[in-house]
Amino acid sequence: MTSKFLSVSFILAAVISSTAFSLQPDQQKVLLVSFDGFRWDYLYKVPTPHFHYVMEYGVHVKQVTNVFITKTYPNHYTLVTGLFAENHGIVANDMFDPILNKSFSLDHMNIYDSEFWEEATPIWITNQRAGHTSGAAMWPGTDVKIHKSFPTHYMPYNESVSFEDRVTKIIDWFTSKEPINLGFLYWEEPDDMGHQLGPDSPLMGPIISDIDNKLGYLIQMLKKANLWNTVNLIITSDHGMTQCSEERIIELDQYLDKDHYTLIDQSPVAAILPKEGKFDEVYEALAHAHPNLTVYKKEEIPERWHYKYNDRIQPVIAVADEGWHILQNKSGDFLLGNHGYDNALAEMHPIFLAHGPAFRKNFTKEAMNSTDLYPLLCHLLNVTAMPHNGSFRNVHDLLSLATPSAIPHVQSTTFIFGSDIPVEYEPEESYPYFIGVCLGSIIVIVFFVIFIKHLIHSQIPALQDMQAEIAQPLLQA
Ligand SMILES: *[C@@H]1O[C@H](CO)[C@@H](O)[C@H](O)[C@H]1NC(C)=O
Ligand SMILES: *[C@@H]1O[C@H](CO)[C@@H](O)[C@H](O)[C@H]1NC(C)=O
Ligand SMILES: *[C@@H]1O[C@H](CO)[C@@H](O)[C@H](O)[C@H]1NC(C)=O
Ligand SMILES: *[C@@H]1O[C@H](CO)[C@@H](O)[C@H](O)[C@H]1NC(C)=O
Ligand SMILES: *[C@@H]1O[C@H](CO)[C@@H](O)[C@H](O)[C@H]1NC(C)=O
Ligand SMILES: *[C@@H]1O[C@H](CO)[C@@H](O)[C@H](O)[C@H]1NC(C)=O
Ligand SMILES: *[C@@H]1O[C@H](CO)[C@@H](O)[C@H](O)[C@H]1NC(C)=O
Ligand SMILES: *[C@@H]1O[C@H](CO)[C@@H](O)[C@H](O)[C@H]1NC(C)=O
Ligand SMILES: [Zn+2]
């Protein structure tokens, strides 16, 4: 009789506590900031007190693996979709889509064709569909109409608008009568100067100090508007930068007849579209052209780059070794710094810091994938994530409520395209979900124990005492 009462009250407690733990994710405010081309180790090149302030009162991830190709548009779109470039469709800054028969070019600001962006749905749209509002100060793609919408508030791209003016807009949107819950802030440096000077130049020091001052200005404005402790600030970037040299140039005209192909994208990943009937000739000529150039037929591109299954990836790509530059001929533009190389190279990696009510304090994490930011944002914003290539479980330990050891690392794998790359499949992704599962399992076990007890009680009375001894500690747990 007492044991029955005990078990009933235990089950009741379990049900109540599992409901309490299975709360929906928080409805948080998020400001996502990108300093273009801010390499992960710029933080240690010169004193960066404002970055270190964010790290000390927030979180820092040391190595963020971004996506191939390590260029601006592909990576900014990955941050807001959680997808690899082959899946979100922005495969380069310069593209040609043979199905649409259209070109996309960052250099000519020919990026406003919606069709290029609509293979994915960026988070500002998902946020708005959930009834929230977003505001964007020049994050790539935020002034493009995608699936018939823009961010609730946005600034048309204009590189002449100062950082301070962009911050003013963001603060206005977060403090207006109908405040946004999701903001985006983009700044072109230190990418531009990194290209011009090369990352190894001592002149990069003042450029990085200037970015640190800009972050200081942002923090000051957030504090003044009483947003510092309510908005989750995430500071990241699209890619790093590596030193180039005029001694490391690969000149395509030396190996290829320029009438045999169209060069869609140049360096360090040359995207080559051979003219009709010229595929073999072009491929053979290039395949053994230069020891620092690796040439792939589209179907041979390594799986780890997730850079194959898209019409906008050209039939042949030629990838330069780190620090090498591909030009059609010597009259082309040479850069002292560049990015776009293999995403496994540390020099291509960006920074990642965050501060706010959702994040732990003074916490350093070794590594994450940039695709993981998207499910993290969805969790913070309490919106349902679209299909993506990230994993919330790989980054939930950045959050202040999470206790990593308590989460069972359940992981099911599935295989795609006949390849042997296991793909993580996440039907649901939240910490409370796992608590719920654990407590649910306990309830089932308790019922099972009671059932056995009753069975034994009615059939083998002699064993009853022994069983009760085993069951008792469980019931009182
Ligand atoms: C999260 O969103 C759901 C609807 O999708 C809503 O019912 C719930 O109240 C939200 N949670 C919070 C904490 O805002
Ligand atoms: C593709 O577009 C170009 C103009 O940009 C046109 O000259 C060409 O005929 C088009 N090709 C096809 C197959 O439609
Ligand atoms: C870009 O911004 C600058 C500085 O605010 C302004 O003078 C200029 O008119 C803007 N250009 C366009 C096209 O709006
Ligand atoms: C360039 O190629 C040479 C010869 O294969 C090799 O020794 C060198 O390491 C390569 N450079 C880079 C940066 O990979
Ligand atoms: C050199 O390459 C550029 C493209 O980078 C091209 O416009 C130019 O015509 C080329 N010059 C020669 C002499 O082939
Ligand atoms: C952060 O952690 C370091 C050591 O890991 C410690 O020296 C420092 O005082 C901590 N800062 C804060 C604000 O807790
Ligand atoms: C990044 O993703 C890959 C799978 O795509 C996974 O194997 C790896 O553990 C992830 N890295 C981190 C640091 O989570
Ligand atoms: C990435 O995610 C997309 C959308 O869910 C999926 O179609 C694709 O197979 C995934 N890629 C990998 C390598 O898992
Ligand atoms: Zn750049």
UniProtKB/TrEMBL annotation:
UniProt cross-references to SUPFAM superfamilies, sorted A to Z: Alkaline phosphatase-like
CDD domains: Enpp (cd16018)
Cellular location(s): Membrane
InterPro entries: Alkaline_phosphatase_core_sf (IPR017850), Phosphodiest/P_Trfase (IPR002591)
Transmembrane segments: 431-452
Pfam family, one: Phosphodiest
Cofactor(s) annotated in UniProt: Zn(2+)
Signal sequence annotation: 1-20
A GO cellular-component term linked to this record: membrane
Keyword annotations: Glycoprotein, Hydrolase, Membrane, Metal-binding, Signal, Transmembrane, Transmembrane helix, Zinc
Membrane-topology descriptor: Single-pass membrane protein
UniProt GO molecular function: NAD+ diphosphatase activity; zinc ion binding
Family: Belongs to the nucleotide pyrophosphatase/phosphodiesterase family.
Name this polypeptide is given: Ectonucleotide pyrophosphatase/phosphodiesterase family member 5
Organism: Carlito syrichta
Gene this protein is translated from: ENPP5
